[in-house]
């Protein structure tokens, strides 16, 4: 049994990633400004056969993964730009059990105002497809200081949301390969 802790593995980074994408986050019809914005991208090993067994249970260890911040450039009060690389972590034999292959779980932005966090993001296949997505938020939540909320994807809007667009603001995310 390999006794390396899978959670503590540190991915090696590709110095010249080729799968680079620009993400443009645009806020539409928000009831006010946001205090701050941050973004991140999440990576995870997808082939668990390269991961050692847990020392206690004998089952697979937790799948290695990590989150990195995305440097955002504020283009205006409502537009932010960031860049991501899908092939940043290097596929390698980290545990002596075969090559571990990394994949992106997703990337997104968090917009904060008065303690509320509004999250909008994409999964890897949407990034690779250079998709455009819009995620909707109730305008009333902008003034609610009790929780964080993740936007409703335009593909899954409820009949109420479709009939009352004035009650919602949205964040669009446009992806382009660079």
Question: Would you give an account of this structure?
Answer:
With 178 residues, this protein is mainly β. It has two helices and eleven strands; from the N terminus they run βββββββαβββαβ. The protein has helices spanning 124-128, 159-163, and strands at residues 20-28, 36-45, 65-70, 72-74, 79-85, 102-113, 116-123, 132-138, 149-150, 152-153, 168-177. Strands 4-5-1-11-8-10 form a six-stranded antiparallel beta sheet. A five-stranded mixed beta sheet has the order 3-2-6-7-9. A hairpin with a 2-residue loop joins strand 6 (102-113) and strand 7. It is elongated and about 55 Å long. The relative contact order is 0.25. The model has no long low-confidence stretch (mean pLDDT 87).
Structure at a glance:
This protein has 178 residues and is mostly beta strands.
List keywords for this structure.
178 residues; mainly beta; elongated
Rg, rounded, reads: 19 Å
Mean pLDDT: 87
Structural class: mainly beta
Quaternary form: single chain
Helical percent range?
under 10%
Q: Which sequence of strands runs across the widest sheet? A: 4-5-1-11-8-10
Number of helices: 2
End-to-end Cα distance: 43 Å
Largest sheet: 6 strands, antiparallel
Assign an overall shape.
elongated
What is the number of beta strands? 11
**What is the H/E string?**
EEEEEEEHEEEHE
Low-confidence stretches: none
Strand content: 35-45%
């Amino acid at each position: 049994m390999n006794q390396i802790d899978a959670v503590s593995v540190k991915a090696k980074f590709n110095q010249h990633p080729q799968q680079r994408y620009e993400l443009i986050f645009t806020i539409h019809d928000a009831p006010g400004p946001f205090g701050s914005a941050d973004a991140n991208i999440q990576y995870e090993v997808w082939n668990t056969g390269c991961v050692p067994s847990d020392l206690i249970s004998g089952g697979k260890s937790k799948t290695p993964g990590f989150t990195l911040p995305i440097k955002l450039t504020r283009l205006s009060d409502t537009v932010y730009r960031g860049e991501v690389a899908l092939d940043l972590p290097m596929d390698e034999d980290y545990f002596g059990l075969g090559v571990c292959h990394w994949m992106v779980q997703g990337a997104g932005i968090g917009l904060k105002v008065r303690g509320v966090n509004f999250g909008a993001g994409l999964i890897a296949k949407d990034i690779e497809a250079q998709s455009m997505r819009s995620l909707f938020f109730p305008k009333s939540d902008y003034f609610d200081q009790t929780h964080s909320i993740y936007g409703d994807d335009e593909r899954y809007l409820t009949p109420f949301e479709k009939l009352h667009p004035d009650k919602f603001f949205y964040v669009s995310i446009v992806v382009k390969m660079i």
